[in-house]
């Protein structure tokens, strides 16, 4: 019986230690080294990519409007801007689809 009592006392002391940790300050993240930057989250990265694609779309729209109104004769540049915008939008959709598929795969994982 003394072995069982020893194990119980050890478990009780570990439980007390864990409860003291839980009641104390929250666990703080590790300090960052000087000169290093914190990595942006996936949401911030996706938002940045979305804004870049939107900027490409606005630029393409402006160059096409300039050609249509006769302000510019750079039709080739307008078409290139339009293709860049289309390609960046398609790439963004592919990334979104891959992320969505990966999230679905994670959610379907058995526990």
Secondary structure blueprint with pairings:
Blueprint (H helix, E strand, L loop, with lengths): L1 H22 L18 H28 L5 H33 L4
Helix pairs in contact: 2-3
Structural features:
75% helix, single chain
Count of DSSP-assigned helices: 3
Distance between the termini: 37 Å
Number of strands: 0
Largest sheet at a glance?
none
Unreliable stretches = none
Shape field: elongated
User: Beta-strand percentage?
Assistant: under 5%
- SSE succession: HHH
Class by helix and strand content? Answer: mainly alpha
- CA radius of gyration is 28 Å
Task: Summarize it.
With 111 residues, the protein is mainly alpha-helical.
Structural account:
The structure is a single chain. This protein is mainly α and 111 residues long. It has helices spanning 2-23, 42-69, 75-107. It has a domain at 41-111. The chain contains three helices and no strands. Helix 2 runs antiparallel to helix 3. The longest helix is centred in the C-terminal third of the chain and has 33 residues, at 75-107.
